[in-house]
């Protein structure tokens, strides 16, 4: 779960200011990852925190076109981690 502190419009304005910005909070239920494999745990954990981070930047997946944008960003960031 993620809880953005800004809406997307206000965040865009703040990002241009080059100041530190509090994006919001991400909460991950570690029990939901449910694996004993450290490698699989890390992979699932990375997927969840990146998904939450993208939400903090104002993206959602309520409609199909937004889902595709969000999914593409997730894949790009996950590839950079690995």
Question: Would you write up a description of this structure?
Answer:
60% of the residues lie in helices and 7% in strands. It has helices at residues 8-15, 30-33, 38-56, 64-81, and strands at 2-4, 24-26. With 82 residues, it is mainly α. The protein has four helices and two strands; from the N terminus they run βαβααα. It has a single domain (2-81), classed as Collagenase (Catalytic Domain) (3-Layer(aba) Sandwich), CATH 3.40.390. The relative contact order is 0.17. It has a two-stranded antiparallel ribbon.
Outline of this structure?
With 82 residues, the protein is mainly alpha-helical.
What keyword list fits this structure?
4 helices; mainly alpha; two-stranded antiparallel sheet; Collagenase (Catalytic Domain); 82 residues
